[in-house]
Every structure is written in structure tokens, then in C-alpha cells.
TrEMBL record:
It comes from the Eukaryota. This is Large ribosomal subunit protein uL2m. Its main location: mitochondrion. Residues 36-56, 255-314 are annotated as: Disordered. One of its GO terms (cellular component) is mitochondrial large ribosomal subunit. The lineage of its organism: Eukaryota, Fungi, Dikarya, Ascomycota, Pezizomycotina. Residues 42-118 form the Large ribosomal subunit protein uL2 RNA-binding domain.
């Protein structure tokens, strides 16, 4: 982490990850569009505030990220870029064959000049020839499971760390897209006889501890998402938070009675009510909101919940 000499109060507590390898120019313009309109202020299409504490902030351009990675063939990493819209870094790729450019979420350790490839559309003929025409799983993993390569889930070896994990075949990644996140492949459900076994579904463990099933043809990228030290950053001052489009959060206790259940009264008094949100939902004490009668059938094991209490050592 980079720290600063406290020449001003705003930089005394400023902490930033050191990322000297990032591109210092502008983004690739053809893959961006401006973020405009009242959606920046947390409003929906009818103008109502649906996400509080949003507004202001620096101008941004949205980068169009390829979460599907369906294009086959080798791609060269041109550069690693900062993206103001997410915690992870982006990699600008160029196809060797078609010269088309695309953005993907960069893997930790990925640098300009690296070569990555997607195997979602199948194993290339030249790779099959190099293995002697036989589809050996161990040999295939040794030749495809490299950092930044996109594989269907059934081709990923057990115990491999992956990010940009999809849930459904033919659709983009939905899990492990933030900085420093990854999932681990822990099992594969197979069907058929010993001679003709086929993978039916793949089981992954997410960083929250949740274990869930994903489709055998869903996408996954080998490696860990870039910028893992992002979680240790410190903004240093309130103004830096405003630059990031984040507005202040006011305590309910400090509001008027018309604005919050905890508001009003003489002095600091919340009126002998249990802690609730601004809409009246209980905020503490392990209040559950998930339906018992309609569990998620793809979740094998739910993430551990300790309801705000300290974890036991047992």
C-alpha cells in the first residue's frame, strides 16, 4: 500500500494499492459510453430515489465488459486499465485472427503481452492433434488451465481457483467479479456408466463459504480477480467519498420524527423502539427475510451466518 507524508489532513490517513503497471492514458473509446441522466443520483425511470446516498461524483464512462468470452482463438493482452466503475482492473484484449478488441476483467498477475484464449466453443483441432487425437482430461487441463483462459466448468480441474464464474450455459459471468475474489471447484456430479461418464453439474465453493451448483457448460476464468489489495484502501477524507458518487449517511436518531422511526424526541432518544430501518424493518437481532418454503435449489450449503456475534473457535 502507498502512504503519504501528512502535508495536509486529507492525506494523513490516505492508503492506496500500488499499481504501477496500469495504463496511464484514456480508455479505448469504441468500447465506452457516457454515464448520464438521473440514474447517477440513484433514481429509477420515474424519477424516484431507489438507492439512497448516491449523487454528485466525477464524470464517468461505462466500459463495455465481455463477460461471456465466447470468441475463440488466441487474444493478446494490450494493456491493463483502471476502471472507475468497479474495484477490479480491466484488460484490453485484441484477437490475433480478427483484430477485434474487447475488455475483460483482468486476472491477478496478468500483464501486457500475455496471451489468453477461450475454449467455450470447444477444443481447437490443432490442440487435439498435439495430444495425439485422444481427449485425455489430465493432458487437456495441462494445456488449457492457464491464468486468464476461459473454460467451460466441466473442463476446469478440481481444486482450481477461478473467477468470473457463470451460472447458466451461454450466459455471462455472475459470481466472483469484484477485486481479489475467486471460487474453488470442489466437485463434479457425473452420470452414466464407468466407460461413458459425463459431467452433469459442477459444484463450487464461493468465498462467503456458500457451496452451490453451476451448469457444466457455464463459463469460468482461471485465476483470481485482479487488485486484491483494494479492500485495504483508506479514502482519507470525506471529499474523496463525494468524488466517488457517495453522499453522506445520516443516522435515523438525528432525523425528525416524520423522517425515521428513531427520529424526534428531546435529546438523544429513539423512543424505546427496537432498531429498525427507515422503512420499519427490524435491523438487528438476526431478523430473517429469506423464505423457508422456497429455498434456492442450486445452493448445496448456505454460507455460515453468526448474526453479528463473534465466531466460536470450535
Amino acid at each position: 500500500m502507498k502512504t503519504y507524508k501528512p502535508r495536509t489532513p486529507g492525506v494523513r490517513h490516505l492508503r492506496r494499492p500500488i499499481n504501477d503497471h496500469l495504463w496511464k492514458g484514456k480508455p479505448y473509446a469504441k468500447l465506452t459510453f457516457a454515464k448520464i441522466g438521473h440514474g447517477k443520483g440513484g433514481r429509477n425511470n420515474s424519477g424516484r430515489v431507489v438507492m439512497r446516498h448516491r449523487g454528485g461524483g466525477h464524470r464517468r464512462r461505462i466500459r463495455t465488459v465481455d463477460y461471456v468470452r465466447s470468441a475463440p482463438g488466441k487474444h493478446i493482452v494490450e494493456r491493463i486499465e483502471y476502471d472507475p466503475n468497479r474495484s477490479a482492473h480491466l484488460a484490453l484484449l485484441e484477437s490475433v485472427k480478427t483484430k477485434e478488441k474487447s475488455y475483460i476483467i483482468a486476472a491477478e498477475g496478468m500483464r501486457a503481452g500475455d496471451t489468453v484464449e477461450s475454449f467455450l466453443s470447444g477444443v481447437p483441432r490443432d490442440l487435439l492433434v498435439s495430444m495425439g487425437g485422444v481427449m485425455d482430461p489430465g493432458m487437456l487441463a495441462a494445456k488449457t488451465a492457464f491464468r486468464g483462459n476461459c473454460l467451460p466448468m466441466h473442463m476446469v480441474p478440481l481444486g482450481t481457483q477461478i473467477y468470473n464464474v457463470g451460472s447458466t450455459a451461454g450466459k455471462g459471468a455472475v459470481f466472483c467479479r469484484s477485486a481479489g475474489t475467486y471460487a474453488t471447484v470442489i466437485g463434479k456430479e457425473e452420470t452414466g456408466s464407468e466407460a461413458k461418464k459425463k459431467v452433469k453439474v459442477v459444484i463450487v465453493r464461493l468465498q462467503s463459504g456458500e457451496v452451490r451448483k453451476v451448469d457444466k457448460d457455464a463459463c469460468a476464468t482461471i485465476g483470481v480477480s485482479s487488485n486484491p489489495h483494494w479492500q485495504f484502501r483508506q479514502l482519507g477524507k470525506a471529499g474523496r467519498s463525494r468524488w466517488l458518487n457517495i453522499r453522506p449517511t445520516v443516522r435515523g436518531l438525528a432525523m425528525n420524527a416524520a423522517d425515521h422511526p428513531h427520529g424526534g424526541g428531546r435529546g438523544k432518544s429513539k423512543g424505546n423502539v427496537h432498531p429498525v430501518s427507515i422503512w420499519g424493518t427490524p435491523a438487528k437481532g438476526g431478523y430473517k427475510t429469506r423464505k423457508k418454503r422456497n429455498p434456492n435449489k442450486y445452493v448445496v450449503k448456505e454460507r455460515p451466518r453468526n448474526q453479528g456475534k463473534r465466531k466460536r473457535d470450535n
